[in-house]
Structures are given as structure tokens and as C-alpha cells.
Amino acid sequence: MLSPQQAQDRAQDLVERARRAGADAADAIYAANASEGIQIRLGNLEDVERSESEHISLRVFAGKRSASIGSSDMSPAALDELAERAISMARLAPEDAYAGLAPEELLSQAPWPDLDMIDSGELSPQTLRTMAEEGEEAARAVAGVTNSDGASAHSGSGVFALTTSHGFAGSYASTNHSLSVSVVAGEGNAKQRDNAWRQSHHREDLPSAAEIGTLAGTRAVGRLNPGRVRSGPLPVVFDPRVGGTLIGHLLGAMSGSAITRRSSFLLDRIEERIFKAGIEIGDNPHLKRGLRSRPFDGEGLATRPTTLVEDGRVTGWLLDTASARQLGLAPTGHAARAGGGSPSVSVGNVHLSAGTLSPEELMADIKDGIYVTELIGQGVNGVTGDYSRGASGFRIIDGQIAGAVSELTVAGNLMAMYAQLTPANDLEWYRAINVPTIRVDGMTVAGE
């Protein structure tokens, strides 16, 4: 794997080859990853894996026509062939009035913020094995745990570089560490499974393996002997590990591509209050050690902290250059590149601001409700906002978490759900989308 500067130089070399081959404009991306992992099951080593990938992709423009192509072969001859093939493809492509590189005057320039995404210490295979073993042992030590799906520990690093023919060149590197544990509780047909996992750039930001394992075991045992619920309207409380999906649906509806296709339930609702007054949702791509932190976006524009929802109102759309041109707006620095192809839209580290009530206070007046810890399926319509997903979790009776429940569906419409959304004060900060416990009144629960 190349260093960040070497990766930047390699991408710049490919752009220059494309210009010599006849491209009016071009950009190139180099992305590489290396990782290794250990999987343990029932105390025994089950799998050892090591993976490395290296890819370079080129996007070229011939007037308003464009094409993208990529390769894992970095030899000079392969790069020349890549450039020539890309130009040939672009000349045969249909014209796109909105195609093109980002506006030159908006390009980001170094120095960029230090995001502290590199852990200088390497984890040996033996260290990874010890982490996995400790995690599984802690989970299996929880009373009621009867079997294990295994524990895995991974460590890796990556490099990303982007260059353009109109003056942008940048690169950055990151490391990552993760640990996951999955166990089974109960016997026979009454078995239940659950898990716990964490990921971070720095190992020191991970909880101990024992803590993660104990959480996995406790979760699995807590799901034993689930009951059923009667169908009807009920308040639903979302655990932070699933509540972030509600915000994820909002981000999808805010993307420029959804707006330009008129396939978003947020159409014509800009500046309209869709959440309760005081609700704020922020995006911070400069959060130190954040999982989605990045110094610049996939088109070379500056990233910056942004308020996406302010006082309950959506402040604007998430725009790459193409969708911005189509809407007659400025790009917002939310372009993303995942290998070849045109940019898509992605955010940084998103959070729903905490409320004032503790989770216990948030649920105190619920006579009968559902506390959701798992969501199943993809039953969300991004055009209408209709929402229906399988779920499991716990009953809430007289403001207290009661027995486990399963085989139920929670349904509603996202616009109505957002209007009734109330956050607790237990905001967590280790995910890509960080949310506190969330209460949504008036949802439809389908059970028995």
C-alpha cells in the first residue's frame, strides 16, 4: 500500500496521462486498504484472515460527455491503456448538461485539519486473538448464555487520494480497530441470539473486550421468553443502537439526487418545521477520531461542520456538484467517491442533539408501549415516507422496561414520526450517526 503522498502522486500521474490522451478534464482516485482479523468460537481459533486491496479509478470528460474506469494494475502501460479506454468510452457516452468537475474557485486547499485518525501502534495477530478470546469468555460467563456464534477482532489501515486536472490534490490515511461478539442464550426452541460490537480509529477508544462481551451476553439473555403484543397505536421508544436509522432515512431524503429526481418525501418542505421546536441535527466531518471524518469531499471541496436541522427545520439539501448545478445551488461539500463512477452524497459524523429528559423520565408516563432494540427488513418508502419494519425489544409497562417481545411490526409515516420525535439526554458518540434514546408517539404496532 502506498503512502498518502505516493498515492497522491500516482493519481496525479494518471490525470496527466488522461489529459495527454485527449481528455478535456479528469479526476483520479486512489484507494487502498489492508486488514487482518481473528475469529474465535467456543475458545478455539476458527479463522485467520488477511486482506489487501489497491484500486485506482479515472473519470474523464469530453465536453459534456464523461466516462469512468478503474484498475488494480498500477503499471505505466496499464495506466496509459486506462486513460485511452476512458477517453474512447466518454466520446460514445450521451451528453449530460450537469456533468463536470467541481467549480475551481471552491476547491479546498491544504493545510487541512488534523483529524487524528491514525493509531501508530500495530496490533499483532496474537493481540487480536487475545481480544477475541476475552470478549467471548466474558459473554459466555453471563448466566443463561448457552452457546456462541463467535467473537472477532480486526485491525486495518487505509489510504485515500484524489487529484483533478484543474488544481486539486489531496490525500489522507486512517486506521481502524473493531471487536464483535455474538452469543446464544437459552435452550431448544427458546434460544435467542444477540451481539455487541465497537469500532474506532484508535484502539484506546474501544471499550475493553470483557465489557463488549458482557454486553453481548446480557443482551442475549434479556431476549429470552419473548411475549407478543396486541395490535394498536402505541408509543415506541428506540434504543440508540437502532434509533440512528430514523436519521439515516432523513439524510437519504435530503440528498441532492433524491431531490433532483423528485423522489424524496421532503420535496417542497425546505425551511418547514418537520420536527418539534428545538430539535437540532448536526454534521461534523472534522470531529477528531470520528468514524466518518474527512478533510475534503470526493470532489475536492472543503468539508465543514453543518447544522442540517435547526429548531426543527431542514436547513438545506446535501449536494454534490452535479445535483447542485441541476438545482441552481452551490455544492455543499458532501460528495463521496467509493471507487469508480460519479460522485454520490455522503455525510460526516451526524448527531441528533440530546434532549433534557433521562431515558427513565422519557418513558415515565408510558402506560403501555414498546422499547425497540432491533429492526428487521427494509420497509421504508423514500418517496412517500411510509415506514413499516419488523422489530423486537421489550414492553414498557407503567414507565418501566418489562419482558421481552418479538414478532411485531412498527409502522407509521416518517413525517408524522419526526413531528412526534422526542430525544432523551443520553447521546452516545461512537457511531457514524449518533443519537440518544428516541421516543415517537402515535406509531402503529402490529402483533397478535
Automatic annotation (TrEMBL):
Coiled coil: none annotated. Residues 120-224 form the Metalloprotease TldD/E central domain. Pfam families: PmbA_TldD_1st, PmbA_TldD_2nd, PmbA_TldD_3rd. Residues 26-90 form the Metalloprotease TldD/E N-terminal domain. Residues 232-447 form the Metalloprotease TldD/E C-terminal domain. Belongs to the peptidase U62 family. This is TldD/PmbA family protein. It comes from Novosphingobium decolorationis. The lineage of its organism: Bacteria, Pseudomonadati, Pseudomonadota, Alphaproteobacteria, Sphingomonadales.
